[in-house]
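Me: I hope this is not a bother. Any chance you could explain this protein sequence and its structure tokens? It all follows right here:
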Amino acid sequence: MYSQGPVKLRAVDKSPGAAMVEIMPAQISRRRFVESALLASAAVPLTLNAQGDATPATTAPAAAADAAPRDALPLGKIGNQEFSRLMMGGNLIAGCSHSRDLNYVSTLMRRYNTPAKVRETLELGEHHGITAINTFVMDDNQQIFDHWKCGGKMKWVAQARIDGGGGFSQIQKAIDDGASAIHLTADAAEGLLDQGKLDKIAEAMQFIKAQKRVAGVAGHDLRALVACEKAKVDVDFYQKTFHSHDYFSAQRPEDPGPVGANDNSWCKDPQAVVDFMVTVKKPWVAFKVL
């Protein structure tokens, strides 16, 4: 968890995919939160065989997932739903590594994350109080669905884009497949803003909310979020990249674009994010924090 001064950060992420939610009642360091959240995961016995390439939908969840969590995680509320403030992200499972020139990493990630390993990860996370995972609707999400068929309760936060014809087919797919919350991806929201189509973002939010789902907008920079707030777009939550620049391959001031030359810098001005978000009353989810 991260906060500074009077800021009480409402969301922070543990993976390149997604994050934590809701307002903190008191300050806590990110190091302290991550340490406490992960401490309980050490030495948990797993009965699910992670060596195979497939896990039948009829396989019962691992014994570790059947027991009550040793340490429940803090919860936050978005719309009318509660989510754990630490969420799982989908980039590692999908093989989206943003790993600079290390071209082998994405392949390694995909080979490591077999269907059985993904199921094991979902069950282990749920056992320790994580209640949600954030993935792209067009990725292979079958293991989430199989998790549900075997009694798992992990909520799905789906990323979606506007389709080529300007329609909401991806959003409808997420609804049909059982997503609890849906947000426009950052590139989708920023692309619509660049085209002068802020009204399309608002229309997408109305469509999601009309289907009784939690609706959000993501951003790599603040432009789309600031525009939505200024126009009073009816969103339930925002999702924003948020990380420091204190690593060797971070984006340099002269690097063009939102991600820099190394494709691994997504938050140009973290202090500006803090300054803006402290004025926003809606929950927000920080992602790519590491």
Summary: Residues 218 and 239 are 4 Å apart (CA to CA). DSSP finds eleven helices and nine strands in the chain. Confidence is low (pLDDT under 50) at residues 1-28, 36-58, 60-65. Residues 115-127 form the longest helix (13 residues).
